[in-house]
């Protein structure tokens, strides 16, 4: 199987469509007949990343690359960037305003959840430029 | 516990997904925090929540939850119900509060997820 790649733009504050990209990603993996356990991990990681783009970023792109060994989800945004990544990674830490909390998000679990879903998790951020998150989920025999 | 039995003990109304009433539920999880749902929930779980926006349905879809109970008599908008229908999720609504609904289900033998094991 060759590499498969898809990209989904995600708009800032578009709560109406938030989750659509992750839903499409989940359907793609289902169509490929992947194991439900890995599909779930990818879907949850992608959805947390997508919600972060909607809530915190100025907009960005979620992409998925599937190769014979792994599934890679990348979330890249156009800013504003994270000042203190270590603090942002802390469970329970959130900068989300009340209106986001009222929607059930902003509990400070997004980034830790993404890390938990991944075999390999990379976050890079430059204030004023943007944030890039790469989640790699390794495929095992049977996935 | 079958979803139809959960419906009966909570005197709940089914808003969509009637075809799933015979499905077996292994665990229940009550929360209005969707990130906690994503972090803790296992498959075979029914979600009890007081949030009625489309993100609840998306969260359920991502976490392989196919049954949701809205508590405190909450009923979501039609587009939220439509999204649940598209995602093959059964939605029920009960007049009981989150605490009371959870207590009733617990007394019927349904158990929660052990947060330490997930």
What does this structure look like?
The complex is a heterodimer of chains A (143) and B (118). Helix content of chain A is 34%, strand content 27%. Chain A has helices spanning 20-31, 36-56, 85-88, 98-101, 110-117; strands at 4-10, 60-66, 70-77, 120-126, 130-138. In chain A, strands 1-2-3-5-4 form a five-stranded antiparallel beta sheet, with helices on one face. In chain A, a hairpin with a 3-residue loop joins strand 2 and strand 3 (70-77). The two termini of chain A are 14 Å apart. Chain B has 118 residues and is α/β, with parallel strands linked by helices. The longest helix of chain B is centred in the C-terminal third of the chain and has 10 residues, at 98-107. The chains are: A alpha+beta (143), B alpha/beta (118). The A-B interface holds A 15-16, 18-19, 22-23, 26, 36, 40, 43-44, 46-48, 51, 103-105, 107-110, 112-113, 116 and B 32-36, 38-39, 43, 49, 51, 53-56, 58-59, 61-64, 87. Chain B: This is DRTGG domain-containing protein. Chain B: InterPro entries: DRTGG, Ser_kin/Pase_Hpr-like_N_sf.
Strand order of the largest sheet of chain A: 1-2-3-5-4
Named CATH topology of chain B = Udp-n-acetylmuramoylalanyl-d-glutamate--2,6- Diaminopimelate Ligase, Chain: A, domain 1
What profile does the largest beta sheet of chain B have?
6 strands, mixed
CATH third-tier fold name of chain A: Heat Shock Protein 90
The CATH architecture term of chain B is 3-Layer(aba) Sandwich
What is the typical, i.e. mean, pLDDT of chain A? 94
Radius of gyration of chain B: 13 Å
CATH superfamily of chain A: Histidine kinase-like ATPase, C-terminal domain
Q: Profile the largest sheet of chain A.
A: 5 strands, antiparallel
What series of H and E elements makes up the topology of chain B? Answer: HEEHEHEHEHE
Instruction: Tell me how many strands of chain B there are.
Output: 6
Arrangement of strands in the largest sheet of chain B: 1-5-4-3-2-6
- Any idea what the shape of chain B is? globular
The helicity of chain A comes to 25-40%
Task: Please give the share of residues in helix of chain B.
Answer: 25-40%
